[in-house]
Amino acid sequence: MESATSWIHSLLFFSFIIASLHLLDRLIISSKLTTDQNIQLIKKQPQLPLHFNSDGTFKILQVADMHYGNGMVTRCRDVLESEFNYCSDLNTTQFLRKMIEIENPDLIVFTGDNIFGASATDAAESLFEVFAPAIESEIPWAAVLGNHDQESTMNREELMYLISLMDYSVSQTFPSTKVTSDPVKQQPITNIDGFGNYNLEVWGAPGSYFSNSSILNLYFLDSGDRAVVNGVRTYNWIRESQLSWLHDISKRYQVNTITGTALAFHVHDLGQWKNADQSVESSLPMMHPALAFFHIPIPEIRQGPIKDIVGTDREYVACSSVNSGVLKTFVSMGDVKAVFIGHDHTNDFCGNLEGIWFCYGGCFGYHGYGVAGWPRRARVIQAELGKGKELWMGVEKIRTWKRLDDGVLTKFDEQVLWDRQSLAWKYQD
Ligand SMILES: *[C@@H]1O[C@H](CO)[C@@H](O)[C@H](O)[C@H]1NC(C)=O
Ligand SMILES: *[C@@H]1O[C@H](CO)[C@@H](O)[C@H](O)[C@H]1NC(C)=O
Question: Do residues 53 and 205 touch, judged by C-beta distance below 8 A?
Answer without folding.
Answer: yes
